[in-house]
Amino acid sequence: MSGPNRPDAADDQSRAHRLEFTVDWPPGHAAAYLLAGDEPILIDAGMAGEQGRAELIDGLDSHGYVPEDIDHLLLTHSHTDHVGQIEALLEAGDPTVHAPTRIRERFARDIETVEAATRRNLAEAGVDPAYIESAIDRLLEAHESNRDALTLEAVDVWFDGDEPIRVGNQEFDPIYTPGHHVTHHCYGTTLGDERVVFAGDMAVEPFRAAAIHVNFDDGVRDCVLAFIDALERLQRYDFDRVYPGHGPVHERYHETVERSIADLEDRIDGCADALEGREETTTATELADELTDSFGERARVLPEIVGALEYLEREGAVRSRLEDGVRYYESA
């Protein structure tokens, strides 16, 4: 093992060391966390690409480690900014990779099935047929980049449910938290005298991660309901410190969870208000055009708007009809 730069061992094992990776979207970084000890653990694996590889090596080196020192890798979810350097870690050493079974379930589906569902759901959302092919290409590229970064063969230990798991010498409490992504888990544990949570893309300061969930695969209409359920599940826990995948480490656990719920409720209310008093039915895409200022923003929030409309329909505030593969909404 590498070691000249390491702090006192007892102090080192009572805290998490943060490694940052550059990404091309706000806030400009993703974070992974190193837990020292007899069996060093890395929580998430950073951004894909050569720059991500260099940042992994530099980040570990700043704490006196090299990639081959990592004995265990624990994953929050399967986005490329969180699993991007798994290959580099496996090339350097032999870490035991721990991941939720929901990742295996998603990746077991063939890409043709994902493509067919994506095409159907984009059409149902009212996306202009002229843009559907380019949207499918973009969304399938995201699916495939996730799968390329995290092959099923790379995972040694699959776990399911919310039962405690042991990773090396550390016990974690997995908390299933979909919405941002259908595979997403947070992990509660104890470091020193603190209860902490490795939150991935939940409980982030100062923003809420988008309700990507499944992109436009089947399940897109459940994204907002799943996100709210996940946040309400998190409300039942207490943590002294949050180690998020983006934004700063902070001590405002309940405040960030409650703010995220309020932000999703604002999205739901915005959709309800946009439908109120409208004489004609409309599609999710038409609503997105009205509620956003740019094409990029519309593409980012369109799944949320589909999910918000589904939430309102289940609440009886909205009704819809499917006509020639396109879903039209009106206030109830």
UniProtKB/TrEMBL annotation:
Presence of keyword Magnesium: no
Keyword Ribonucleoprotein included in the entry's annotation: no
Alphabetized PANTHER family for the sequence: ACYL-COENZYME A THIOESTERASE MBLAC2 (PTHR42951:SF4), METALLO-BETA-LACTAMASE DOMAIN-CONTAINING (PTHR42951)
Keywords of the record: Hydrolase
InterPro entries associated with the record: Metallo-B-lactamas, NDM-1-like, RibonucZ/Hydroxyglut_hydro
Source organism of this protein record: Natronorubrum tibetense GA33
Domain Metallo-beta-lactamase, residue spans: 29-246
The protein's name: Hydrolase (Hydroxyacylglutathione hydrolase) 11
Family annotation (Gene3D superfamilies): Ribonuclease Z/Hydroxyacylglutathione hydrolase-like
Classification via Pfam families: Lactamase_B
An example molecular function term from Gene Ontology annotations: hydrolase activity
